Amino acid sequence: MLKSDVDLAPYTYIRIGGRAEAFWEVRSRTDLESALEWRRQRGVAEWFVLGGGANLLVNDERSYALVIKLDRAFGAIREEPDRIVVEAGVYLSRLVRDGVAAGWGGIEQLAGIPGTIGGAVVMNAGIPAFETFDLVLEVRALDAEGREVCFRTEELRPGYRNGNIPPDVVVSEVILARRAGDRAAMATAARRLKDERREKQPLQHPSFGSTFRNPDPPAAHGVPEGHGSPAGQATPAGRERPRVGEQGAAGAWAAGTLIERAGLKGARRGDAQLSEKHANFVVNLGRASARDVLELMILARREVGRRFGVWLEPEVRMVGFRPADLEPLLERAA
Q1: Is 280 domain-assigned?
Q2: pTM above 0.85, yes or no
Q3: 58 lies in some domain
Q4: N or C: at which end does the chain have fewer Cβ atoms within 10 angstroms?
């Protein structure tokens, strides 16, 4: 279904976005093929795909020629003897619910993660001990010309919070391994994961999720032995060392901990805030703009870099910004 002049904010988890001049709601593979054909016929060069709207910051100071929205109706799940075929619009909450009921082992690890399976494979969403691609056998997609392309997991070589999906394709189906699981144990694990998220994350306010990736602990950043680094390495000159405490070495170097240690927990720009509950979450307290969020991200990155010598990398996908806007999120000051 094609719509015109659509406000994108309601379609993102953080409730920030510009306007789509053309907004194509995809409810089937046929719809997706039609949307891509419409784009080709009109020569639309700049467009993007919107799934569940998690892990996404859309610049609200501009409009977009075409946005392809994967609707939840694009959500068939088909069980086969050794695999599960999931259309890209399936929300992870539904996949977990159905998977636990059917005993599809491993799917319970996705509990509490926002968004759709299509978005989850693009960013390789997960938790410290689990990633989406631990379950994925194959990703099926359409390229910009509408041709089907298939990628096996070993071809993609997914990494931390990056599925390595080519940027010019639209995920249509995800093929998951079907493994036997204990339904009762899976249900217990899913409840625990959801409870942990409610306890640790600021779910009462709109947010796109984690702002920065957790840095590699911590050899790349020169932490002395006893703080998680190889022997003989030293903290960069003039930099502070995060305290380990009860969190352990990896926790001491988590992005949220570093931002908090830098004194920025609760910092605000307009109605955007580094959450008082978890400093690696930017929350929208009401009327936050993308510029507010960007300024907070730049502040957090620079202050953590200045204090600890660690240059955080954005985890959130940022759409519609000029390269100059994003340069401060890539620089590494001395």
Answers
A1: yes
A2: yes
A3: yes
A4: C
- SS3 letters across the chain: CEEEEEECHHHCCCCCCCEEEEEEEECCHHHHHHHHHHHHHHCCCCEEEECCCCCEEECCCCEECEEEEECCCCCCEEECCCEEEEECCCEHHHHHHHHHHHCECCHHHHCCCCCEHHHHHHHCCEECCEEHHHCEEEEEEEECCCCEEEEEHHHHCCECCECCCCCCEEEEEEEEECCECCHHHHHHHHHHHHHHHHHHCCCCCCEEEECECCCCCCHHHCCCCCCCCCCCCCCCCCCCCCCCHHHHHHHHCCHHHHHHHCCCCCCEECCEEECCCCCCEEEECCCCCHHHHHHHHHHHHHHHHHHHCCCCCECCEEECCCHHHHHHHCCCCC
Which residue is catalytic, options 140, 161, 261, 307? 161
The whole-number pLDDT of residue 219 equals: 45
- Domains identified in the chain, total number: 3
Q: What is the pLDDT of residues 28-86, one digit of tens each?
A: 999 999 999 999 999 999 999 999 999 999 999 999 999 999 999 999 999 999 999 99
User: Within this chain, do residues 242 and 317 fall inside the same structural domain, yes or no?
Assistant: yes
Q: Is 334 within the bounds of a domain?
A: no
Of 21, 43, 70, the residue at which a domain comes to its end is 70
Q: Which position among 93, 172, 210, 229 bears the catalytic label?
A: 210
Annotation says 172 is catalytic: no
In a domain, 195, yes or no: no
Instruction: Note down the domain range covering 45.
Output: 2-70
CATH number at residue 251: 3.90.78.10
**What whole-number percentage of the chain has pLDDT above 90?**
85
List, for residues 129-155, the tens digit of each pLDDT value.
899 999 999 999 999 889 999 999 999
The question of whether 210 is a catalytic residue gets the answer: yes
Catalytic-labelled residue, pool 25, 131, 138, 315 = 315
173 is catalytic: no
